[in-house]
Amino acid sequence: MTLSLNERAAALADRLADDADALRVAVETLPGGTRLIDCGSAVPGGLEAGRRFAEITMGGLGAVSWTPVVLDGRWFSGLTVVTDHPPLACLGAQYAGWQIKRDDYFAMASGPGRALIRAEDLYDDLDVDERADRAVLCLETRDAPSDELAVSVAERAGVAPGDLTLIFAPTASLAGSVQVAARVVETALHKLHELDFDVRRVVSGYGTCPVPPVAADDGAAIGRTNDAVLYGGQVELTVDAPDDELEAVVERLPSSASKDFGEPFGKVLKDADWDFYKIDPLLFSPAEVRLVGVGSGRSFSAGGVALEVLERSFRG
Predict the structure, then answer these.
(1) pTM for the full predicted model
(2) How many structural domains are present in the chain?
(3) 217-241 burial, b for 16+ CB within 10 Å, e for fewer?
(4) Nearest to residue 71, comparing CAs of 254, 287, 257?
(5) What CATH number is given to the structural domain containing 71?
(6) Does residue 246 carry a pLDDT above 70?
(7) Could you give the 3-state DSSP secondary structure of residue 198?
């Protein structure tokens, strides 16, 4: 497929920068030419900045909109995510699969720039042949990247530093809360991939997720934002696959398939000594998943929201 994720994302990033004052974000150009857009670290940012951040992470191939989410009679502010290119938008672009480590700097990188860098094995399973003159990466971090780091990232992406945009926000911010909640469909796609299902057969994705209240610090925010998806996220995927395959895989998809399901993620992470790799990988998926077969039109569902756990998490 010749759709350029980075060119689409760069156009959205241009609009974000043009509306910087209204969106309460800050735009800076590093000495090497890289554009930085702060969506919630040294500036307030906001819900709309987070919504645009999320659409940029998807390479412009997904739409994020606001919606009230009602779970077992309890109302939450929330969002809806829709994409007709789930493998590209969710895994090729949105998945936060690249860890940036340099000296004392750390950030989880998502966005379409990853498709140029191809540092992750999952690209071997996707139809992605990304080519672009500009690159966009989205960073979950409180610290602005340095010029030296930006030059290094641009080199790996195969673009000039002046053609790179880095957008960042901490987890404990309005924009951070929104952009993580907007990963609700992505988590379902990634879980399918982890279960060795060919995600290229997923033809559309629709999901809803509550937007968690901003936590007091980034550590607590990691818990709340994950809980929004794990215990309140609901996803429907339309898949071009036989019914027997969908029926066989659906029970393994929701977060309830994990042995670590049932406690707020902050507690799970603390019990794991803050080591994500000690947590059962089957936990990272939406609370409820429905698969719809393209050929038969039949639906297969599994999981369900866990309101009590969600409310414990959001109360803090």
Answers:
(1) 0.96
(2) 1
(3) eeebbbbbbbbbbbbbbbbbbbbeb
(4) 287
(5) 3.30.1030.10
(6) yes
(7) coil
CB 263 within 8 A of CB 241: no
Domain with 116 in it: 5-315
Phi/psi-derived region of residue 45, left when phi > 0, alpha when psi is between -120 and 50, beta in every other case: left
Digit-coded pLDDT (tens) for 128-178? 999 999 999 999 999 999 999 999 999 999 999 999 999 999 999 999 999
Torsion of CA 24, 30, 33, 35, to 10 degrees: -20
CA atoms within a 13 Å half-sphere pointing along the CA-CB vector of 206: 7
Angle between helices 307-315 and 218-232 (to 10 degrees): 160
Q: What is the pLDDT of residues 250-262, one digit of tens each?
A: 999 999 999 999 9
Helix ranges (H only) for the chain are 5-18, 20-23, 47-57, 86, 113-117, 147-157, 174-181, 184-194, 218-232, 243-250, 265-271, 307-315
Q: Measured between alpha carbons, how far apart are the two ends of the chain, in Å? A: 45
Closest by alpha carbon to 218, among 110, 143, 310, 312? 143
